[in-house]
Amino acid sequence: MTRQKLMENVYLTCVPSEKFKTSLLSAQLAVPLDKETAGRSALLVNVLNRGTIRCPDMSAIGRELDMLYGAQLAPSVRKKGENQLFGFAASCIDDRFLPKGEKLLEKLTDLLGEFFCQPDTKGGRLRRDYVESERENLADMIRSVMNDKRSYASHRLLEEMCAGERYGVGRVGDAAGVEKISMASLDRYYREVLPKGRLELFYCGSAPEKRVAGAFTRAFAAMPRQGMIEPVPTVRRPAREPYQTITEEMDVAQGKLAMGFRIDGEDKAAAMLMNAMLGGATTSKLFCNVREKLGLCYYADSAYHRLKGLITVSAGIECSDYGRAVEEIFRQLDAMVRGEWEDWELEGARQSLLSALRAMEDSAGAMEDFVMGQAAAGTDETLPGLTAAIRAVTPERIREAAQAVKPDTIYFLKAKEDRP
Amino acid sequence: MNTVQYPRVGETVHRQTLSNGLEVITVSKPYHAKSYAFFAVRYGGMDLRFCQDGQWRDTPAGIAHYLEHKMFDMEEGSVMAEFAQRGASDNAFTSNAMTAYYFTATSQFYENLRTLLRFVSTPYFTPESVAKEQGIIAQEIQETEDDPDWRVYANLMECLYENSPVRIPVVGSAASIRQITPQTLYECHSAFYTPANMVLICVGSMDPQRVIEEAEAILPQTGGATIGRDYGGEEGPSPAKREAIQTMEVSMPMFLAGYKCRPAPGGETLRQSIIGDLACDALFGSSSPLYTRLYEEGAVNSSLGGNFDMLPGAEYVYVGGDAKDPRRIFDEITQQAQALGRDGIDESFYQQLRRAAYGGMLRSLNSMENIAVSMAEGYFRGFDYFSFPEVFDTVAKSDVEAFLRENITLERAALSVIHPLH
Question: Which of A92, A120, B319, B347 gives 20 to 30 Å between its CA and that of B400?
């Protein structure tokens, strides 16, 4: 894996590989996650996705991609720590599987550059019809989070727990904010963020680095580069005392419990392991006890938000079991504090994390996400570094990591009382 | 052992049928860190009524899925810990026509393989553990009841089919799973989990010969009798019901339209699936005239999509998404299919789709999981998935047009809609 500066505020990461049938290309802008601009970034990529000067509408773009043997090029918007990463990810069949002499890399890179630098415009501004229809689509998409109750509960938990923090801002903003974005303000945002946002480029495939760098340099030659918006470091806060409980109702059969904890400590490797043992796998404490022993739920798991220092726990339960489930989750966390685990639980979790890190090299998408995440969050973790850190964690450090976990917010989505 | 190279997809496959009837397939991926093993049974949610030793039996809905949950129990405890101790990650799924157990690992592949072979071939059920599972699966069922994507599909299947068990959810219902006992689980295991009714697929850098040896050492020596299955007989073209409407906590209306398709000619499963996929691309794929027009009008968003599904005795096209006026989209799709069937698909558009579809199939081989599932489906249904480039070459535009003309008609259609509560 290599990383180079291609132009001012433009960086290219190359991962040479012949393992895959396809090559992956990605171009992302990294900016601080902000309530005011999160929705604009998301809307912007969706508008840019509608047409370029050369391919001005969806059927022209569709035709172009189909003719590149079903190449894919799609907008992507991600939250990485307290920064937002937005742009396009593209992939195409690797040259090895094409009729002799066909080359797709340059064509797809050119198209990627066009999406950023040459949108189809009217009177020099982004097209009104595209802005209006994508604004409606994006607002609909954000509102549809409620369709998936599990994600909705996790989303509401972070909104409430991190209200007023960047981390509480949704990946693509909120529906009400998106609906207020005017054409003029989006056009202004485009002209401002394009030259200033840090542009991260990524390639994984069989082409040599020199050819890749050449293709990207040509495709992005028209990209204005002036000024600089840097990603921001993540701000950590102590947990609320006492923790808050928020209950909301919907017409549902099953209750969704989402609990948020803050980690008052810096030992990331120990926290990763601690989380894996608590709720990261089907042999974790939450799965074995809340599900297997007590039969309270179908799923109970935990996630470690490494870049922000949070742990969230999620479970789908019978509404009347709320008290038992919360109590059991606290009990399992206590067990971690007291060091109550078998050797294999720790070693298994360690092997599982190491294995997951190793298996990342088998997925171009996973490598892209890791590299882009590091770039967006301004961190400099490496896979070998994480691997070594996980190997070195001691039981004592895991207990300390568990001790540093403090409850902040419990969110419960429950069934309406009058539901039959 | 039979080794076949597939230059057009860049794969090498080793196959052997063991003396007990088990098919063992190894797909070589010498440069991957990860290894994957997939052990599948031709037994799924649809296999409720079957014939063993000359006797027809009816079993409760959801039993294949329940059995999958309980297979992880061994006399010494849950087998999950064995995988976990080695850092391997294991899981399982039950679909309409298949139950599969699998793991991924970056080390100790053969140890994990032995665990997989052993636990899937060893039934161990107690009244207590079977009773306890009721609570867990009841929660899983409740979760599906709150899931609009699941509901819109389940409602559509109930509309489309009269007798086929595809209309019954794979997980069953709270009432049906209450009838499941250790005895029924043992009986279903002994009927279906026989080597001749299973396939073992490994993808990675493992030694194919060693995989065969491990399977021979652990699995039963004999294959088991062929099980008769009853999928409710051949159904007519009309759906049981035209429409299903449900109200749920969703943000906007959601729909799924279904078209009951004619059965594929014998021995043409792979070819028919390619034709069906191309028909879907031509009709409502993201570069199709209909999709782009409806999207540009604001009548649909990027959630619009669908596919052609082939299950035993039940082949159908489904298409759906979020839309303010589901009925209008449904009508437009049906009309467009008839127009394409009658007037023909534009030749240059068809060539464009062919290129894209070929790329899409090749792309799917990036995933070990996709490879294993496609190979297993192919094995159970009698085709070789990696031969798709050759089969693809035999498909003509007229095949796709005929598919649309014959299958995507109002007569064969049903519509399932979920409306928001508020």
Answer: A92
pLDDT of residue A151: 96
Domains, chain B, ranges and CATH?
2-229 (3.30.830.10), 243-420 (3.30.830.10)
CATH fit for domain A244-415, picks 3.30.450.20, 1.10.10.10, 3.30.830.10, 3.40.50.2000: 3.30.830.10
Out of B32, B249, B363, the one facing A250 most closely (by C-beta) is B249
Q: Return d(Cα B305, Cα B292) in angstroms, integer.
A: 12
pLDDT at A377: 84
- CB B33 to CB A359 under 8 A? yes
Task: Quote the minimal CA–CA distance from A48 to chain B in Å.
Answer: 14
Please give the distance of CA A164 from its chain centroid, rounded to a whole number.
20
Annotated catalytic residue, options B23, B68, B235, B401: B68
Q: Report pLDDT digits (tens) over A146-197.
A: 999 999 999 999 999 999 999 999 999 999 999 999 999 999 999 999 999 9
Predicted pLDDT of residue A420 = 52
Half-sphere exposure of A116 (CA within 13 A, CB side): 30
The C-alpha atoms of residue B303 and residue B179 are separated, in whole angstroms, by 38
Q: Are B333 and B323 in contact (CB under 8 A)?
A: no
pLDDT at B332 > cutoff 70? yes
Q: Do A92 and B359 touch (CB under 8 A)?
A: yes
**Res. B268: pLDDT tops 90:** yes
- Contact at CB, B358 and A66, closer than 8 angstroms: no
Is B111 in the active site? no
Residue range B300-316: mean pLDDT, rounded: 96
CB-based contact B301 A19, cutoff 8 Å = no
Contact call for B355 and A253, based on CB within 8 A: no
Give a three-class secondary structure readout of chain A. Answer: CEEEEEECCEEEEEEECCCCCEEEEEEEEEEECCCCCHHHHHHHHHHHCCCECCCCCHHHHHHHHHHCCCCEEEEEEEEECCEEEEEEEEEEECHHHCCCCCCCHHHHHHHHHHHHHCECEECCEECHHHHHHHHHHHHHHHHHHHHCHHHHHHHHHHHHHCCCCHHHCCCCCCHHHHHCCCHHHHHHHHHHHHHHEEEEEEEEECCCHHHHHHHHHHHCCCCCCCCCECCCCCCCCCCCCCCEEEEEEECCCCEEEEEEEEECCCCHHHHHHHHHHHHCCCCCHHHHHHHHHCCCEEEEEEEEECCCCEEEEEEEECHHHHHHHHHHHHHHHHHHHCCCCCHHHHHHHHHHHHHHHHHHHHCHHHHHHHHHHHHHHCCCCCHHHHHHHHHHCCHHHHHHHHHCEEEEEEEEEEECCCCC
This model of the complex carries an ipTM of: 0.92
The distance of B80 to chain A (nearest Cα, Å) reads 6
What pLDDT shows up at residue B393?
95
* Percent of chain A topping pLDDT 90: 87
Domain positions in chain A are: 2-219, 244-415
Interface A–B counts its CB contacts (< 8 A) at: 192
- CATH topology for A2-219 is Cytochrome Bc1 Complex; Chain A, domain 1 (3.30.830)
pLDDT tens per residue across span B18-69 = 999 999 999 999 999 999 999 999 999 999 999 988 999 999 999 999 999 9
Q: Which of A141, A143, A344 sits opposite B81 (nearest CB)?
A: A344
B345 closest CA partner among B286, B283, B295: B283
Q: Do domains A2-219 and A244-415 have the same CATH topology?
A: yes
